[in-house]
């Protein structure tokens, strides 16, 4: 039983780290996460415990955006605003 709890903790920690990574490198994910965190995580198969989700929601989106902007573009996802797609198609 202790081994199962330990494995769940490791998987949960992995999802926390995965979420933080996406919050920093993926502007679209960051926007979606702060609008509807449960749905955004579900879409990617990320399972966060309520206390983990609460802790991540305490991080200011502006702080994540600032740090994300300082990262090398080669490790960040390209984010195209929905309006930009429509304008490009015209």
Describe the main β-sheet briefly. none
Task: List segments where confidence is low: pLDDT < 50 over at least 5 consecutive residues.
Answer: 84-89
Q: Assess the beta-strand content as a share of residues.
A: under 5%
Would you list the SSEs in sequence order as H and E? HHHHHH
Structure summarized in a few sentences:
The protein has 90 residues and is mainly α. The protein has six helices and no strands.
Walk me through this protein's architecture:
With 90 residues, the protein is mainly alpha-helical. It has one domain. The radius of gyration is 15 Å and the shape is globular. The termini are far apart.
List the helices and strands and how they pair.
Elements: H1 2-25, H2 27-35, H3 37-44, H4 50-57, H5 61-70, H6 82-89
Helix pairs in contact: 1-2, 2-3, 2-5
Key terms:
single chain; 74% helix; 90 residues
